[in-house]
Design goal:
Number of strands: 9
Helix content: 40-55%
Strand content: 5-15%
Distance between the termini: 62 Å
CATH architecture of the largest domain: 3-Layer(aba) Sandwich
CATH class of the largest domain: Alpha Beta
Number of domains: 2
Structural class: alpha/beta
Order of helices and strands: EHEHEHEHHEHEEHEHHEHHHHHHH
Largest sheet: 6 strands, parallel
Length: 317
Protein backbone atom coordinates (compact mmCIF):
# COMPACT_ATOMS: atom_id res chain seq x y z
CA UNK A 1 0.00 0.00 0.00
CA UNK A 2 1.38 3.42 -1.00
CA UNK A 3 2.29 5.63 1.95
CA UNK A 4 0.38 8.95 2.08
CA UNK A 5 2.17 12.17 1.17
CA UNK A 6 3.28 13.78 4.42
CA UNK A 7 2.41 17.41 5.10
CA UNK A 8 3.91 19.17 8.08
CA UNK A 9 1.98 21.69 10.13
CA UNK A 10 2.80 24.13 12.90
CA UNK A 11 -0.30 25.63 14.49
CA UNK A 12 -3.27 23.34 15.14
CA UNK A 13 -5.76 25.83 16.56
CA UNK A 14 -9.10 26.94 15.13
CA UNK A 15 -7.77 27.46 11.60
CA UNK A 16 -4.81 25.10 11.57
CA UNK A 17 -6.81 22.29 13.13
CA UNK A 18 -9.37 22.62 10.35
CA UNK A 19 -6.65 22.47 7.68
CA UNK A 20 -5.27 19.30 9.24
CA UNK A 21 -8.72 17.70 9.50
CA UNK A 22 -9.40 18.18 5.79
CA UNK A 23 -5.93 17.09 4.71
CA UNK A 24 -6.32 13.87 6.70
CA UNK A 25 -9.72 13.32 5.06
CA UNK A 26 -8.02 13.83 1.67
CA UNK A 27 -5.61 10.97 2.55
CA UNK A 28 -2.56 13.07 3.33
CA UNK A 29 -0.44 12.26 6.32
CA UNK A 30 -0.22 15.28 8.64
CA UNK A 31 2.58 15.60 11.15
CA UNK A 32 1.93 18.53 13.41
CA UNK A 33 3.01 20.58 16.38
CA UNK A 34 1.27 23.13 18.57
CA UNK A 35 2.42 24.35 22.00
CA UNK A 36 -1.13 23.82 23.27
CA UNK A 37 -1.66 20.29 24.61
CA UNK A 38 -5.37 20.30 23.81
CA UNK A 39 -4.68 21.20 20.17
CA UNK A 40 -2.15 18.38 19.90
CA UNK A 41 -4.57 15.93 21.51
CA UNK A 42 -7.33 16.94 19.08
CA UNK A 43 -4.96 16.42 16.14
CA UNK A 44 -3.98 12.98 17.39
CA UNK A 45 -7.64 12.08 17.89
CA UNK A 46 -8.29 12.91 14.23
CA UNK A 47 -5.54 10.49 13.18
CA UNK A 48 -2.68 12.96 12.80
CA UNK A 49 0.88 12.45 14.00
CA UNK A 50 2.07 14.76 16.78
CA UNK A 51 5.66 15.73 17.57
CA UNK A 52 7.15 17.84 20.34
CA UNK A 53 8.65 20.71 18.32
CA UNK A 54 8.77 22.48 14.99
CA UNK A 55 12.21 21.07 14.23
CA UNK A 56 10.69 17.57 14.23
CA UNK A 57 7.98 18.66 11.80
CA UNK A 58 10.40 20.31 9.37
CA UNK A 59 12.71 17.31 9.30
CA UNK A 60 10.00 14.87 8.19
CA UNK A 61 8.32 16.56 5.22
CA UNK A 62 8.96 18.50 2.01
CA UNK A 63 5.96 20.82 2.35
CA UNK A 64 4.54 22.31 5.51
CA UNK A 65 1.92 24.84 6.60
CA UNK A 66 2.27 27.44 9.33
CA UNK A 67 -0.82 29.02 10.93
CA UNK A 68 0.34 31.24 13.78
CA UNK A 69 -1.28 33.78 16.13
CA UNK A 70 1.43 36.44 16.56
CA UNK A 71 4.73 37.85 15.33
CA UNK A 72 6.46 36.39 18.39
CA UNK A 73 5.03 32.94 17.70
CA UNK A 74 6.18 33.19 14.08
CA UNK A 75 9.74 34.11 15.06
CA UNK A 76 9.88 31.19 17.48
CA UNK A 77 8.34 28.74 15.01
CA UNK A 78 10.85 29.58 12.29
CA UNK A 79 14.03 30.60 14.11
CA UNK A 80 13.76 29.30 17.67
CA UNK A 81 16.17 26.65 18.93
CA UNK A 82 13.63 23.97 17.99
CA UNK A 83 12.19 25.82 15.03
CA UNK A 84 11.77 25.08 11.34
CA UNK A 85 15.16 26.35 10.19
CA UNK A 86 16.97 24.15 12.72
CA UNK A 87 15.66 20.93 11.17
CA UNK A 88 14.44 21.70 7.65
CA UNK A 89 15.29 19.57 4.67
CA UNK A 90 16.86 21.50 1.82
CA UNK A 91 14.17 22.53 -0.64
CA UNK A 92 11.41 22.65 2.00
CA UNK A 93 8.37 24.70 0.96
CA UNK A 94 6.47 26.51 3.72
CA UNK A 95 2.89 27.60 3.05
CA UNK A 96 2.70 30.54 5.47
CA UNK A 97 -1.04 31.01 6.09
CA UNK A 98 -1.03 33.51 8.98
CA UNK A 99 -2.15 37.13 8.87
CA UNK A 100 0.93 39.18 9.74
CA UNK A 101 2.46 42.56 8.87
CA UNK A 102 3.90 42.41 5.37
CA UNK A 103 7.37 43.47 6.48
CA UNK A 104 7.46 40.52 8.90
CA UNK A 105 6.60 38.05 6.15
CA UNK A 106 9.23 39.53 3.81
CA UNK A 107 11.85 39.22 6.56
CA UNK A 108 10.92 35.57 7.16
CA UNK A 109 11.11 34.82 3.43
CA UNK A 110 14.57 36.37 3.01
CA UNK A 111 16.07 34.70 6.07
CA UNK A 112 14.64 31.30 5.13
CA UNK A 113 15.83 31.60 1.51
CA UNK A 114 19.40 31.76 2.81
CA UNK A 115 18.81 28.30 4.30
CA UNK A 116 17.36 26.83 1.10
CA UNK A 117 13.75 27.12 2.31
CA UNK A 118 11.03 28.59 0.07
CA UNK A 119 8.35 30.50 1.98
CA UNK A 120 5.04 31.28 0.25
CA UNK A 121 2.73 34.06 1.42
CA UNK A 122 -0.67 32.33 1.55
CA UNK A 123 -3.16 34.00 3.91
CA UNK A 124 -6.66 32.59 4.20
CA UNK A 125 -9.98 34.26 3.47
CA UNK A 126 -12.65 32.84 5.75
CA UNK A 127 -13.60 32.36 9.38
CA UNK A 128 -12.83 29.37 11.57
CA UNK A 129 -16.35 28.06 10.92
CA UNK A 130 -15.76 28.33 7.19
CA UNK A 131 -12.41 26.58 7.56
CA UNK A 132 -14.15 23.75 9.42
CA UNK A 133 -16.54 23.40 6.47
CA UNK A 134 -13.72 23.66 3.90
CA UNK A 135 -15.28 26.93 2.71
CA UNK A 136 -12.14 29.07 2.58
CA UNK A 137 -10.02 30.58 -0.16
CA UNK A 138 -6.21 30.76 -0.23
CA UNK A 139 -4.51 33.90 -1.54
CA UNK A 140 -1.23 32.32 -2.66
CA UNK A 141 1.72 34.50 -3.61
CA UNK A 142 5.41 33.89 -4.15
CA UNK A 143 7.40 31.47 -6.30
CA UNK A 144 4.98 30.24 -9.00
CA UNK A 145 6.63 26.83 -9.38
CA UNK A 146 6.45 26.22 -5.63
CA UNK A 147 2.77 27.22 -5.56
CA UNK A 148 2.09 24.77 -8.38
CA UNK A 149 3.81 21.97 -6.47
CA UNK A 150 1.41 22.61 -3.58
CA UNK A 151 -1.75 22.54 -5.69
CA UNK A 152 -3.02 19.20 -4.37
CA UNK A 153 -2.45 20.37 -0.79
CA UNK A 154 -4.43 23.57 -1.35
CA UNK A 155 -7.25 21.50 -2.83
CA UNK A 156 -7.07 19.27 0.23
CA UNK A 157 -7.98 21.96 2.75
CA UNK A 158 -9.57 24.86 0.82
CA UNK A 159 -12.51 25.52 -1.47
CA UNK A 160 -10.34 27.56 -3.84
CA UNK A 161 -6.85 28.94 -4.36
CA UNK A 162 -5.99 32.13 -6.21
CA UNK A 163 -2.43 32.63 -7.42
CA UNK A 164 -1.86 36.33 -6.79
CA UNK A 165 1.65 36.84 -8.19
CA UNK A 166 4.72 38.10 -6.38
CA UNK A 167 5.33 37.42 -2.71
CA UNK A 168 3.27 39.77 -0.55
CA UNK A 169 0.34 40.19 -2.91
CA UNK A 170 -1.55 37.56 -0.96
CA UNK A 171 -1.22 39.56 2.25
CA UNK A 172 -2.25 42.81 0.54
CA UNK A 173 -5.43 41.12 -0.70
CA UNK A 174 -6.01 39.64 2.75
CA UNK A 175 -5.82 43.12 4.29
CA UNK A 176 -8.46 44.32 1.82
CA UNK A 177 -10.65 41.31 2.61
CA UNK A 178 -10.32 41.82 6.36
CA UNK A 179 -11.06 45.54 6.05
CA UNK A 180 -14.40 44.53 4.53
CA UNK A 181 -14.94 41.82 7.15
CA UNK A 182 -14.36 44.37 9.92
CA UNK A 183 -17.01 46.69 8.48
CA UNK A 184 -19.51 44.04 7.38
CA UNK A 185 -19.47 42.31 10.78
CA UNK A 186 -20.47 45.57 12.49
CA UNK A 187 -23.08 46.33 9.82
CA UNK A 188 -24.59 42.85 10.33
CA UNK A 189 -24.77 43.58 14.07
CA UNK A 190 -26.43 46.96 13.39
CA UNK A 191 -29.08 45.21 11.30
CA UNK A 192 -29.74 42.60 13.97
CA UNK A 193 -30.09 45.22 16.71
CA UNK A 194 -32.46 47.24 14.53
CA UNK A 195 -34.55 44.11 14.07
CA UNK A 196 -34.43 43.31 17.79
CA UNK A 197 -35.38 46.84 18.87
CA UNK A 198 -38.23 47.01 16.36
CA UNK A 199 -39.78 43.83 17.75
CA UNK A 200 -39.02 41.50 14.85
CA UNK A 201 -38.14 37.83 15.26
CA UNK A 202 -34.40 37.68 14.53
CA UNK A 203 -34.82 34.36 12.74
CA UNK A 204 -37.19 36.13 10.35
CA UNK A 205 -34.69 38.98 9.93
CA UNK A 206 -31.98 36.49 9.05
CA UNK A 207 -34.11 34.48 6.63
CA UNK A 208 -35.42 37.50 4.71
CA UNK A 209 -32.29 39.68 4.63
CA UNK A 210 -30.09 36.73 3.67
CA UNK A 211 -32.23 36.27 0.54
CA UNK A 212 -32.10 39.91 -0.56
CA UNK A 213 -29.75 42.63 -1.76
CA UNK A 214 -28.73 43.64 1.77
CA UNK A 215 -26.98 40.40 2.64
CA UNK A 216 -23.23 39.91 3.11
CA UNK A 217 -21.04 36.90 3.82
CA UNK A 218 -20.53 38.14 7.37
CA UNK A 219 -24.28 38.53 7.87
CA UNK A 220 -24.72 34.94 6.70
CA UNK A 221 -21.82 33.46 8.68
CA UNK A 222 -22.16 35.40 11.93
CA UNK A 223 -25.89 36.10 11.87
CA UNK A 224 -26.76 32.80 13.62
CA UNK A 225 -24.48 33.68 16.56
CA UNK A 226 -26.07 37.12 16.79
CA UNK A 227 -29.55 35.56 16.80
CA UNK A 228 -28.62 33.32 19.74
CA UNK A 229 -26.62 36.04 21.50
CA UNK A 230 -24.03 33.37 22.26
CA UNK A 231 -20.45 33.97 21.09
CA UNK A 232 -18.53 31.38 23.09
CA UNK A 233 -17.96 28.97 20.16
CA UNK A 234 -15.47 31.41 18.65
CA UNK A 235 -14.43 31.12 15.02
CA UNK A 236 -12.30 34.26 15.41
CA UNK A 237 -11.64 35.46 18.95
CA UNK A 238 -11.95 39.19 19.63
CA UNK A 239 -8.48 39.31 21.20
CA UNK A 240 -6.89 37.64 18.18
CA UNK A 241 -8.74 39.78 15.66
CA UNK A 242 -7.40 42.92 17.34
CA UNK A 243 -4.04 42.00 15.81
CA UNK A 244 -5.63 41.96 12.34
CA UNK A 245 -7.28 45.33 12.96
CA UNK A 246 -3.93 46.83 13.96
CA UNK A 247 -2.25 45.38 10.86
CA UNK A 248 -4.91 46.79 8.51
CA UNK A 249 -4.75 50.19 10.19
CA UNK A 250 -0.97 50.36 9.86
CA UNK A 251 -1.11 49.23 6.22
CA UNK A 252 -3.71 51.88 5.35
CA UNK A 253 -1.71 54.56 7.19
CA UNK A 254 1.40 53.58 5.22
CA UNK A 255 -0.53 54.06 1.98
CA UNK A 256 -1.92 57.39 3.23
CA UNK A 257 -5.49 56.48 2.24
CA UNK A 258 -8.78 57.29 3.98
CA UNK A 259 -10.60 54.33 5.57
CA UNK A 260 -13.50 56.07 7.36
CA UNK A 261 -15.83 53.07 7.71
CA UNK A 262 -12.99 50.89 9.01
CA UNK A 263 -12.00 53.57 11.52
CA UNK A 264 -15.60 53.95 12.67
CA UNK A 265 -15.90 50.18 13.18
CA UNK A 266 -12.81 49.77 15.35
CA UNK A 267 -14.37 51.20 18.50
CA UNK A 268 -16.95 48.41 18.73
CA UNK A 269 -14.28 45.71 18.73
CA UNK A 270 -12.42 47.59 21.48
CA UNK A 271 -15.67 47.77 23.44
CA UNK A 272 -16.19 44.03 23.01
CA UNK A 273 -12.77 43.43 24.56
CA UNK A 274 -13.43 45.76 27.49
CA UNK A 275 -16.84 44.18 28.12
CA UNK A 276 -15.43 40.70 28.62
CA UNK A 277 -15.69 39.15 25.15
CA UNK A 278 -11.94 38.77 24.50
CA UNK A 279 -12.11 34.97 24.22
CA UNK A 280 -15.40 35.02 22.33
CA UNK A 281 -16.25 35.51 18.67
CA UNK A 282 -16.06 38.91 16.98
CA UNK A 283 -19.81 38.61 16.36
CA UNK A 284 -19.99 39.88 19.97
CA UNK A 285 -19.97 43.43 18.56
CA UNK A 286 -23.71 42.76 18.36
CA UNK A 287 -23.85 42.56 22.17
CA UNK A 288 -22.02 45.89 22.35
CA UNK A 289 -24.63 47.54 20.12
CA UNK A 290 -27.45 45.93 22.10
CA UNK A 291 -26.09 47.54 25.26
CA UNK A 292 -25.87 50.91 23.52
CA UNK A 293 -29.44 50.53 22.27
CA UNK A 294 -30.68 49.77 25.79
CA UNK A 295 -31.70 46.30 24.69
CA UNK A 296 -29.26 43.87 26.35
CA UNK A 297 -30.40 40.26 26.38
CA UNK A 298 -30.52 38.07 29.47
CA UNK A 299 -27.34 36.15 28.63
CA UNK A 300 -25.20 39.29 28.30
CA UNK A 301 -22.33 39.31 30.84
CA UNK A 302 -23.10 41.60 33.78
CA UNK A 303 -20.23 44.02 34.21
CA UNK A 304 -20.51 47.05 36.46
CA UNK A 305 -19.48 50.43 35.09
CA UNK A 306 -17.03 50.77 37.99
CA UNK A 307 -15.36 47.47 37.06
CA UNK A 308 -15.02 48.48 33.40
CA UNK A 309 -13.47 51.83 34.39
CA UNK A 310 -10.96 50.04 36.64
CA UNK A 311 -10.08 47.65 33.81
CA UNK A 312 -9.39 50.54 31.44
CA UNK A 313 -7.26 52.28 34.07
CA UNK A 314 -5.21 49.12 34.56
CA UNK A 315 -4.61 48.81 30.81
CA UNK A 316 -3.49 52.42 30.44
CA UNK A 317 -1.12 52.33 33.43
Amino acid sequence: MKKPTMVGQIGLGIMGGAFAKHLLAAKFGVIGFDPDKKARAAHAARGGDCVVSGVDVAGKCNVMITSLPSVKAMETAFFGKKGIVAGARKGLIVIEASTMPLEVKHDIRVRCAKQGITVLDCPISGTGAQAAAKDISVYASGDAAAVKRCDAIFKGFARSMHYCGEFGNGSKLKFIANLLVTIHNVSAAEAMVMGLKSGLDLNLVYKVIKDGAGTSRMFEVRGPMMIKGDYKAATMKCEVYQKDIDIIGAFAAGLNIPVPLFEASKAYYSSALSQGYAKEDTAAVCAVLEQMAGEPRKNAPKRSIKKLINQRKAKSS
